[in-house]
Amino acid sequence: MQSLLALHRAGLLKAAAHITGGGLPGNLPRVLPEGLCAVIDAAGWRLPPVFAWLARAGGVAAEEMLRVFNCGVGMAVVVSDAEAASALLTGHGETVFPLGRIETAGDGETIRIDLPAGWLGT
After folding, report:
1. Does residue 38 contact residue 28 with C-beta atoms inside 8 Å?
2. Fold adopted by 2-114
3. CB neighbours of 13 closer than 8 A, spacing ≥ 6?
4. Among 25, 56, 82, 114, which is 20 to 30 Å from 106 by CA?
5. pTM over 0.85
6. Which of 28, 13, 24 is nearest to 86 (CA)?
């Protein structure tokens, strides 16, 4: 919480989404103004092994894993300067990785998650 407060005080924080039940698709679009879309690159972070195991053991598709679980992303922030925000958060002891970018939405799209081949380790 102190990290987010520091981002806010530095004028870098535009939005924050705690990624809980509903995963990225259910939580991140809630903080975006209408007309914008989050474009996420799943290659941007390391999927914790427990999620790959859950997917294999339960026969769960990647899209469903992302909808149900946070898949290792606890908080997503939208910032005005990614480099400065990354430095600030790292300085507060946070693990930081880029998730993607914000674009103008097309046809009601609010989030697009690009999954690299083998993302679940299967």
Report:
1. yes
2. Phosphoribosyl-aminoimidazole Synthetase; Chain A, domain 2 (3.90.650)
3. 4, 7, 77, 78, 79, 85
4. 82
5. yes
6. 13
